[in-house]
Amino acid sequence: TVIGQNIHNSEGNTIHMPSIGYQAPKNFGLTIHEETHAATEGNTLMSEYAKNLYQEAFYYPDDAIPVDALLRMPGIINNQSTGSISVDPDAPEETKRMFNEYAYWYFYQSDPTELDARKKVLEYEMDILGMKKYGEPFTQKHLDQLYQGFNDLSTGSREFLNRIRTDYVIKIMNTIADI
Description:
Blueprint: E1 6-8, E2 14-16, H1 29-40, H2 48-57, H3 67-71, E3 76-79, E4 84-87, H4 93-109, H5 112-128, H6 140-148, H7 155-163, H8 166-175
Antiparallel strand pairs: 1-2, 3-4
Helix pairs in contact: 1-5, 2-5, 2-8, 5-7
């Protein structure tokens, strides 16, 4: 197993395979996910079109804390000269919890690199399941099939579908390049 270890891709890049967040037997997509990060060198090799479309399409849950509410909490440090937000180590525990939740949704989950990696897992899984071959246009029929079998999809595929607004899925699947 490679879970929790470092592996090396064909270009010699080291990729860390996280030990949490993916459960067997649905962890096949983990390698694809991490290889996508290596292939795009984070966001470096991703097109501006793809980055912008992912950001536009990202679904923020209704209960995600808005930035203006976060900035009013005691212990939040808003460095306007750098545009960064941080939390004072001595801040109340509730402030730290809310900051971590904010960072999770607004920095990690909405990062185009993370969304692209999850899209690649979904594309691969659809190919394996015989739902859609690479190069074939993605249609409403495909989307309906995905939502019908949602609970049987891998973690990465479910995360992609949960994080992209439904009205953008077809556009993203047809306009952002396959692997």
